[in-house]
Specification:
This protein is mainly α. It has helices at 13-37, 57-76, 78-102, 114-132, 145-150, 152-155; strands at residues 48-50, 53-55. Strands 1-2 form a two-stranded antiparallel ribbon. The longest helix is centred in the N-terminal third of the chain and has 25 residues, at 13-37.
């Protein structure tokens, strides 16, 4: 699996990356704002229930910061949105594991409980899936812009997306479009 910056920028998959980042960012922003609006104690390890999850002021602030990063990635779009989604998704999953180890300890500064850990895993996988959609696969279809860029010669064009003039001919792939 390679994520490269020279991949095509203007393609319809960008809408998936933007929608994923925007929707997940909106959910986190609402959660964070609800926590700050309730005036939660900033470093409480007990936390209080907000939207079914345990939260404190620090977790609310972290949620808002992550939401801003996701929404900024959605605003920019393209490969940046995809990369932001993948990175934030992986960080969410890692956070779930780290906070699982800290449950019921004095080091639980984000006031995590088991529902928070499960939410962190689920949200992380969802965000990462939005970022990887159509970009990371062992069998991308031949009309996928990432496949075309990685196999420019076979797709009949130089890397970067410009078509080869008809006078230069094209090479056909077995089972793929010409």
């Amino acid at each position: 699996m390679k994520l490269r910056e020279e991949l095509p920028v203007d393609h319809r998959l960008s809408q998936v990356y933007r929608a994923g980042a925007g929707l997940c960012g909106a959910v986190l922003l609402v959660f964070g704002c609800l926590g700050l609006a309730d005036g939660l104690s900033f470093f409480s390890t007990d936390g209080e229930r907000i939207a079914g999850l345990s939260s404190n002021g620090l977790l609310s602030l972290v949620s808002i910061v992550v939401a801003v990063v996701l929404v900024a990635g959605a605003a920019v779009g393209g490969n940046l949105a995809s990369t932001v989604n993948i990175t934030v998704g992986v960080l969410f999953v890692l956070s779930g594991f780290a906070n699982l180890a800290l449950l019921d300890s004095s080091a639980n500064v984000l006031a995590f409980r088991m529902p928070n850990v499960l939410f962190s895993f689920a949200m992380g996988l969802l965000i990462a899936t939005f970022g990887m959609y159509g970009r990371v696969s062992g069998r991308l279809p031949h009309d996928n812009p990432y496949w075309r860029d990685r196999h420019a010669q076979a797709a009949g064009r130089p890397a970067g997306g410009t078509a080869v003039p008809a006078s230069q001919g094209r090479t056909a792939l077995p089972g793929g479009p010409v």
